Amino acid sequence: PTRAHIAHSKALAERAPKISKFLKQVKLDSEVVNQWILAMEVEGQDVKDVAANWIAANKDMIEKEWLAGTQ
Fold first, then answer.
1. Which residues, at least 6 apart from 54, have a Cβ–Cβ distance to it below 8 Å?
2. Which of 5, 7, 33, 66 is most buried by its number of CB atoms within 10 A?
3. What is the chain's pLDDT, residue by residue, as a tens digit (71 residues)?
4. Residue 40 CB partners (closer than 8 Å, separation 6+)
5. Assign residue 44 a region: left if phi > 0, alpha if psi is -120 to 50, beta otherwise?
6. Phi, psi of 28 (to 5 degrees)
């Protein structure tokens, strides 16, 4: 699947290395992003509900991969 990555400035890496590390570790499949768009735009779900549901369903991945080494 296609992956989405988050870009940030080199200055952020110098000012806030933990945030920079976190952003480098965030990886999203296009399928996930498409599911969010479908839920919000077609099904009319609130963005906060979509986010909260996804976070709850993916808590282990977020904690073990995205937040690894940032706390």
1. 32, 36
2. 66
3. 688 888 889 999 999 999 999 999 998 999 999 999 999 999 999 999 999 999 999 999 999 999 999 98
4. 46, 47, 50
5. left
6. -125, 135
- Distance of alpha carbon 9 from the chain centroid: 18
Query: Residue 65 has which token pair?
Result: 């991969």
Amino acid identity, position 22 = F
The contacts of residue 48 (CB under 8 Å, 6+ apart) are: none
d(CA 37, CA 70): 28
The answer to whether the beta carbons of residues 26 and 54 sit under 8 Å apart is no
Cα separation, 7 vs 70, in Å, equals: 17
